[in-house]
Design goal:
With about 625 residues, this protein is an alpha/beta fold. The chain contains 20 helices and 30 strands. The strands form six sheets. An eight-stranded mixed beta sheet has the order 2-1-11-10-12-13-14-15. A seven-stranded mixed beta sheet has the order 7-6-5-3-4-8-9, with helices on both faces. Strands 16, 17, 20, 21, 22 and 23 form a six-stranded antiparallel beta sheet that branches. Pfam families: AMP-binding, AMP-binding_C.
Amino acid sequence: MDIYTVSTVLASVAIFPLVLKVFYPYFWDDFFYLINLIWIFIKFGKRRGRKPLFLVLDRYFEQVSKHPNRPFLVFEDQTFSYQDADKKSNKIANAIQKHTDLKAGDTVALYMGNEPTFIFTWLALAKLGCPVALLNYNIRSKSLLHCFGCCEAKLLIAAAELQGAVEDVLPSLQEKGVSVLIMAKACSTPGMESLVDKAEEAEDGPISPSRRESLTFKSPAVYIYTSGTTGLPKAAVITQDRLLAAMTVLASNGVTPGDIIYLNLPLYHAAGFVIGFVGSIETGSKIILRRKFSASLFWEDCRKHHVTVIQYIGEVLRYLCNTPKKNSDRDHKVRLAIGNGVRADVWREFLDRFGNIQVREFYAATEGNVGFLNYTGKIGAVGRVNYFHRKLFPYALIKYDAEKEEPVRDHRGLCVEAAKGETGLLVSRITKIAPFIGYARNDQQTEKKRLRDVFQKGDLYFNSGDLLRIDHENFIYFQDRVGDTFRWKGENVATTEVADVLGMAECIQEANVYGVKVSGHEGRIGMAAVTVKEGMAFDPISTCSQVTNYLPAYARPRFLRIQDSLEMTGTFKQMKVKLVEEGFSPAVVSDPLYFLDEKMKSYIPMTHEIYNSIASRDIKL
């Protein structure tokens, strides 16, 4: 080979990275993402092929066996090793076996906040072969009974501080033959039994694997509640197979055993339970568990515990950015933030203020069959179109008519794919690799999420209910939600549930609930257009009492609009689009407007002064 040829080859090799950077700037990001995807499939495939059946619990047993004394969970001033957690969960499991007639396969409802006992109890129930329904500890009364009924639980285990909420619905539970255990040392309420004292007296020996021998990959592992697009909360069925696959999320984002995870999201949420807790079982990382998110103590906790990985929902990062600036803002070891729902401007502000933290934004739905990961760090995007990802999980954005609330169809009755750069409804084909299990005991809502005849007659897709957009660089951006759900304070709020509660107020005839945007805030806050019963006047105090007694804070409509009648479509559906656009400004809305003042425990007339105070953030929402 002559000098000229050698020089040409060397020059080509030297210029190749530059050519890639100019013409294919995300080549290496895409390449390593593909390698990661292949690694996940190989690992998942190997585990699926193991005999006997290998489940999330078995990965936990591996960690206990290999690293019994490794710190697993830190809560306040307590530290629990893998072995500690194993023994505590064994004691709870043995107590339940002895004092109840619970059988493998029976569903148990867990009604508890973020505390170690939540994790120990879930492990105990998994050892007993029982699926667990994770109840939102904010719900009460009708909503609690509804959620409980969705999963047909045979047993309810509740935190001591939630005993009063359980007592409110105890007669209904007793009618269904449900047993109730309270996580306390003593309980004098007839129909309830204490569990802590029984667990303390129980043996800490292992539970026989025979309790789990009837389980299959299709068996339910947990039920996680989601508002979806309509109605009361629905119990999304998370099978053993799906939970095993989801266990790899943290590891696939580079989390290792040496990492320390800060978990302050609710454990009843998919983000907190699946990614934070179950993901840490896979990686063997230490969990720093906190009862609730606190913006003022967030970085103090991170520094104290040397946290390296944090989780977020969009609101979390904004709350952190809204705290007073300190010289110590960059004094931490956090290297990775993983979550979803952060606005682009908040994302930039977060990085500018708190330093070079890798933000891994993702898109997923608890019950969905497709997800995206922004593996490049492109600010504002939830993911990136990848050829192989799309082959494995076929999805598309289709044109959507917001007024009719349905996909646009052509003359053949098939859906129309949205053009690049155009907002469309995300749909994903239902396949063996990407199944849609649906909701427990809710065939109607399950069917509503199935979309047929999308691109050819007879095909079947999952309707995400979300509007997304793909730009010309193939990045994917979340745009909005469709249907009757809005998101506030990181929680999905079903408008029909709120409307039902409002309709129980003595003076309210009918309510149309929707979410409206507030400047400087993520998501949409609750508002309702209501009509008053004939011959009655609007009662702001009793209406306030109604919503505060029956709805968690994030679901309460902060603004009310009193109307003579509610506008309907030709098919008798409530019109929301115009109401959403007009919002809560007294300069725009001529109808009487009210604002929920929680200090005064009443709805008070909405004024320009209140509106301006909300806009300037002098009034906190």
